[in-house]
């Protein structure tokens, strides 16, 4: 049973890789407008950023900005950020808070 499942999963991944030979184009880098609380902020070239981007089907090659990982929006109600407070490009909803592009630390 397990071997059949692994064959099916491998076939699906190969099909997806063939359908997107170069991944999706990199997301556009726009001026940061969204305050976020991120677990970490790393360069787009960092291995952890590349892994998260790959899961989402994003290609970060050629992007020379910092990205936030595991981010959530900061609301007016309160800032209980236990991570790094940054302002980033507004993340796409389909990214599910896993990554935000062009993050700049907020210093108070």
Strand composition percent = 25-35%
Main pleated-sheet profile: 5 strands, antiparallel
- Summarize the helix and strand pattern as letters: HEHEEEE
Radius of gyration: 16 Å
- Quick check: average pLDDT? 76
Uncertain ranges: 1-21
Helix content: 25-40%
Q: What strand line-up does the widest sheet have?
A: 4-2-1-3-5
Class from secondary-structure proportions: alpha+beta
Q: Give the overall shape, derived from the CA principal axes.
A: globular
N-to-C span: 56 Å
Total helical segments? 2
Task: Write structural notes for this entry.
With 108 residues, this protein is α+β, with helices and mostly antiparallel strands. Helices cover 26% and strands 26% of the residues. It has two helices and five strands; from the N terminus they run αβαββββ. The protein has helices spanning 2-19, 47-56; strands spanning 34-43, 66-73, 84-88, 99-101, 104-105. It has a five-stranded antiparallel sheet with strand order 4-2-1-3-5, with helices on one face. The longest helix is centred in the N-terminal third of the chain and has 18 residues, at 2-19. The radius of gyration is 16 Å and the shape is globular. Residues 1-21 have low confidence and may be disordered.
Give a nutshell description of this structure.
The protein is of the alpha+beta class. The protein has two helices and five strands.
List keywords for this structure.
alpha+beta; 5-stranded antiparallel β-sheet; 108 residues; disordered N terminus
């Amino acid at each position: 049973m397990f071997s059949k499942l692994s064959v099916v999963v491998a076939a699906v991944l190969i099909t997806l890789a063939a359908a997107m030979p170069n991944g999706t184009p990199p997301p556009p880098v726009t001026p940061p407008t969204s305050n976020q609380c991120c677990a970490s902020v790393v360069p787009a070239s960092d291995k952890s950023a590349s892994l998260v981007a790959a899961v989402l089907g994003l290609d970060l090659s050629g992007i020379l900005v910092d990205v936030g990982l595991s981010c959530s929006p900061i609301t007016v109600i309160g800032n209980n950020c236990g991570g790094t407070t940054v302002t980033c490009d507004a993340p796409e909803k389909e990214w599910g808070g896993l990554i935000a592009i062009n993050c700049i630390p907020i210093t108070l």
